[in-house]
Design brief:
This protein is mostly helical. The chain has one domain. The radius of gyration is 20 Å and the shape is globular. It starts with a helix and ends in an 18-residue tail after the last helix.
Length: about 325
Amino acid sequence: MTNFVNSFGIILYATLIYTTPLLYAALGSCFSEVSGVVNIGIEGMMTAGAFTGTVIAYFTGNPWIGFLCGGLAGAFFGMLHALATVKLGADQTIAGTAINMLGPGIVIMIAKVMFNSTDTIPLSASQKIPKLLTGVFDTSTVFGRFMDNVFATYASTYLVFAAALLVWFIFYKTRFGLRLRACGEHPQACETLGINVIAMRFGCVCISGFLAGLGGACVTMAISTQFRPISIVGQGFIAIAAVIFGKFKPQGALIGCLLFGFCSGLKVVLGGSSGINMQLISMIPYVVTVIVLVLFVGKSHVPSANGKPYIKSK
């Protein structure tokens, strides 16, 4: 019984850890998609945030400055995506693909110049995002060890669940959220009401990049200790799949990210078991992603104007 409780606690802990970067990116994707702009460049924005956050934290010694700068790096690439798609009317899918190629290319080049390697120098414990509630629970008891396994996690994990609640409130309880959703459904009608659709979409794509950058920074400043070219591989697309699964709603994206986070956590826990092929275990999150897309992509309500460039009337 004790072993079962401990194992269950470890799986829950791993689920929360791996849900965190996905949820940051998925919340960002919600802003962009609901406003009417397809953003498949989430992966590139996460990569930029992962590298920038790690480097800034390494040189300043302050993880929170690094974390914020990771978000700003993602916002910069979000601005590039918004400039191409919202201002210039470029194809949104192609522009997002370009961001996914440009982001990793630039940061790997900078890493090579700064560190003579595509990897950054590992962060020390004081340079990583700190953990909360460590030492609070009595680990001499089964219940205490379970609580310690689950809740003594990184501060970024607590922040992302607060962010999910905040995004839900913004979407459904504020005038800004009403206008945001209207821009993704009926942009021409919004224009007649005096809403600046171009500015609204531009801002939402930048917010999308900022949150994706925070998600990338979580990967290298909490889960691992350094940036590597493979740090973010696939996570941006999994976050997009979670948004589709969640029907483009922040609360639905939260459930989707918990599902994918559980699969990633299960992969880590099972990876330590003998007799199980590691390659098969590593496939779990990606197989689940494909299954979710097959089952739910046709059932999700996509905003009516999503993916359609908006041209302001004369």
